């Protein structure tokens, strides 16, 4: 078996040796719109794509710069090629975390021009954790042990079509890529 996956756009992509030129927005937006959060354990479908959009909207609401809004939108981009693994499992998989980091850094380099700084990563993690906490409280009635962050945006937890989420993701990505080029 080959060491590549065939992406939505029919690119033969090698996740263990990612090439920037083979990473395109459609191959991130499409699978993330179809991939479920919480490994499918929420009572309703809520996608990684919806979570990514919510993280970007939270970054906007916090007044973060365009680069950070785009970084928040893309923070789970590697999952489009690797899949989503729950945090309790992922923390015990050092090889997976390294593969994920290389791929995620390649995505950031492609679309942001560089990997976020440690200060930027702290803000991205805080947005991600705040959205995660609110998602679990909304869908499962569970208050995670990390405690709530202050949510500045109003989440949209409606069940949405895959296509609508994919289109919104692509539109937001284009908007912020255009802003970064200014």
Q: How would you describe this structure to a colleague?
A:
With 182 residues, this protein is mainly α. 56% of the residues lie in helices and 2% in strands. A two-stranded antiparallel sheet has the order 1-2. β1 and β2 (12-13) form a beta hairpin. The N and C termini lie far apart (44 Å). The model has no long low-confidence stretch (mean pLDDT 95).
Rounded to the nearest angstrom, the distance between the terminal CA atoms is: 44 Å
Query: What summary fits the major beta sheet?
Result: 2 strands, antiparallel
What integer value in Å does the Rg equal? Answer: 16 Å
The general outline is globular
What is the overall pLDDT average? 95
Low-pLDDT parts are: none
Q: What percentage of the residues does DSSP assign to strands (E)? A: under 5%
How many beta-strand runs? 2
Helix and strand string, N-terminal first? Answer: EEHHHHHHHH
The total of helices stands at: 8
Based on helices, strands and strand pairing, what is the structural class? mainly alpha
Question: Layout of SSEs?
Answer:
Blueprint: E1 5-6, E2 12-13, H1 26-34, H2 48-61, H3 66-74, H4 79-82, H5 87-90, H6 94-112, H7 118-140, H8 162-181
Antiparallel strand pairs: 1-2
Helix pairs in contact: 1-2, 1-8, 2-3, 2-7, 2-8, 3-6, 3-8
């Amino acid at each position: 078996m080959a060491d590549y996956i065939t992406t939505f756009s029919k690119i033969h992509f090698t996740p263990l040796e990612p090439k920037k030129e083979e990473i395109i927005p459609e191959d991130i937006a499409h699978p993330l719109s179809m991939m479920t959060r919480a490994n499918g354990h929420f009572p309703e479908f809520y996608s990684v794509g919806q979570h990514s959009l919510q993280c970007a909207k939270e970054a906007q609401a916090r007044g973060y710069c365009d680069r950070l809004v785009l970084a928040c939108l893309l923070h789970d981009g590697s999952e489009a090629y690797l899949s989503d693994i729950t945090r309790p499992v992922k923390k015990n998989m050092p090889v997976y975390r390294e593969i994920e980091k290389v791929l995620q850094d390649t995505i950031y380099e492609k679309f942001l021009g560089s990997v976020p700084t440690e200060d930027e990563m702290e803000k991205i993690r805080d947005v991600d954790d705040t959205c995660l906490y609110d998602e679990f409280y909304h869908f499962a009635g569970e208050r995670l042990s990390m405690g709530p962050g202050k949510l500045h945006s109003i989440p949209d937890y409606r069940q949405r079509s895959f296509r609508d989420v994919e289109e919104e993701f692509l539109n937001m990505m284009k908007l912020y890529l255009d802003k970064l080029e200014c």
